[in-house]
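sry for the spam today, last one i promise. C-alpha cells for design, 358 residues
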C-alpha cells in the first residue's frame, strides 16, 4: 500500500511517516517548506517534495498510485480547498487524519498502547518513558512531538510489544485511541478554537480516560475535571516522597519523571529504585529548557503552567546574584485572548521581561 503524507514536516505527521515505512508501507509526502526534519526524512529514504500543488501530487500518483492520503489537522484549517485533498477526493483515494492510520498499525502489530496526554508535560513525559524503555533494553514503537537526541521522533522497532504515543488533544485526535495505559500529565483549558468551553475540554479528557484500561493521573487534575475514583484509575500526589529521590533539575521535570516511572513500572514491573536511577540520567529534549549557549536556554512554554515550570527550573539553575532575563514570544494571538488573565505571577523571579510579538 502506498501512503502519502500531506504536511510531512510536522511533528505529528513526520514521525508517523517513518513508523509507516518501518511497518512495511510504501511512503511519500509533501510539505509547504523545507526544514531540517524534511531533510532528515529524505536521508532515511522517504520520497517527498516541497510545494503542495495539484500538478506535483498528480505526477507522483501517475508514477506510483496513491492508496491513502494522511493529512495534518492544520491543513484543512489553513486551506479548506487544499489542492492535495481535492485531488485525492477527485481520484477516489482514501483520506484521513493521522489517528486512523496509527490505530491500524497498532492493531495490526498487536501492540499495547501507552498514551501520554495532557495540556502540558506530555512531550517531556513521553520522552522519559521512551528513555526508560531504552535503558531497560525493551524494544518499542513510539511517536513524540518533540526532537529527542537519543532516538528518532517516530520509530517502530522489530519485536515491539509496546507503543508509546504522545496523544494530542488538538482536533480531538486522542479520542481515536483506546489505551492499555493512559497517563494524564496536567490539564488546563487549551485549543479554544476546538473546545468551546473549559467543561468541553475537561469532558474530552474524561472520555479519553474512560476509553483506557488503566490511567495514571495527578490528584489535583482528577479533582479539577470531576473524575470519579475507580479501580482502573491510579491517583498520585505531587507531594509523594519518591519524587524527592529524583535528581533532575526543576520540580515539574521531577513530577513528569515520576509519572513516567509509574507508567513503566506498571507495564514492566521493574523496581521503582532501578527506574529512578535510569531517569536521573535522562538527557532532556529539544526546546524544553534546552541549553543552547552558556547561560542561554530555549523553552517551548505556551501555557501559564509551563511558563511557571520553566521559571522554577531557571531559578534552580541560576547562581546567586545572577540576573534572570526572559524573552517571551506568545504562541498564537488567538490563545492570548483566552489566557491573558492567567499570566499574573507567571514570570515571578525574573529581573527583566521582553515580551515580543507572536
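last one done:
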Amino acid at each position: 500500500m502506498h501512503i502519502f503524507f500531506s504536511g510531512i514536516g510536522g511533528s505529528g505527521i513526520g514521525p508517523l511517516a517513518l513508523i509507516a515505512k518501518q511497518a512495511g508501507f510504501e511512503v511519500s509526502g509533501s510539505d509547504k517548506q523545507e526544514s531540517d526534519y524534511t531533510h532528515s526524512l529524505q536521508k532515511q529514504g522517504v520520497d517527498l517534495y516541497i510545494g503542495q500543488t495539484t500538478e506535483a501530487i498528480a505526477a507522483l500518483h501517475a508514477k506510483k498510485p496513491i492508496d491513502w492520503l494522511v493529512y495534518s489537522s492544520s491543513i484543512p484549517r489553513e486551506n479548506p480547498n487544499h489542492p492535495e485533498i481535492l485531488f485525492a477526493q477527485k481520484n477516489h483515494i482514501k483520506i484521513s487524519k493521522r489517528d486512523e492510520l496509527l490505530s491500524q498499525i497498532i492493531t495490526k502489530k498487536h501492540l499495547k498502547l501507552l498514551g501520554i496526554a495532557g495540556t502540558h508535560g506530555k512531550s517531556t513525559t513521553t520522552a522519559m518513558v521512551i528513555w526508560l524503555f531504552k535503558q531497560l533494553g525493551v524494544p518499542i514503537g513510539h511517536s513524540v512531538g518533540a526532537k529527542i537526541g537519543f532516538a528518532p521522533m517516530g520509530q517502530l522497532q522489530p519485536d515491539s510489544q509496546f507503543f508509546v504515543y504522545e496523544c494530542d488533544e488538538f482536533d480531538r485526535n486522542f479520542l481515536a485511541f483506546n489505551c492499555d495505559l493512559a497517563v494524564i500529565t496536567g490539564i488546563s483549558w487549551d485549543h479554544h478554537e476546538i473546545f468551546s468551553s473549559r467543561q468541553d475540554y475537561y469532558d474530552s479528557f474524561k472520555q479519553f480516560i474512560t476509553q483506557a484500561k488503566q490511567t495514571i493521573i495527578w490528584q489535583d487534575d482528577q479533582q479539577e475535571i470531576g473524575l470519579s475514583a475507580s479501580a482502573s484509575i491510579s491517583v498520585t500526589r505531587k507531594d509523594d516522597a519518591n519524587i524527592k529521590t529524583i535528581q533532575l533539575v526543576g520540580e515539574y521535570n521531577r513530577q513528569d519523571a515520576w509519572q513516567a516511572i509509574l507508567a513503566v513500572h506498571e507495564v514492566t514491573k521493574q523496581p521503582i529504585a532501578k527506574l529512578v536511577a535510569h531517569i536521573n540520567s535522562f538527557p532532556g529534549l529539544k526546546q524544553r529548557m534546552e541549553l543552547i549557549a552558556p547561560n542561554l536556554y530555549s523553552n517551548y512554554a505556551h501555557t501559564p503552567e509551563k511558563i511557571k515550570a520553566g521559571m522554577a527550573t531557571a531559578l534552580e539553575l541560576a547562581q546567586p546574584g545572577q540576573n534572570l532575563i526572559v524573552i517571551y514570544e506568545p504562541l498564537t494571538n488567538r490563545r492570548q485572548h483566552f489566557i491573558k488573565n492567567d499570566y499574573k505571577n507567571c514570570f515571578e523571579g525574573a529581573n527583566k521581561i521582553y515580551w515580543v510579538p507572536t
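The two ends are 41 Å apart (CA to CA). ok im logging off now
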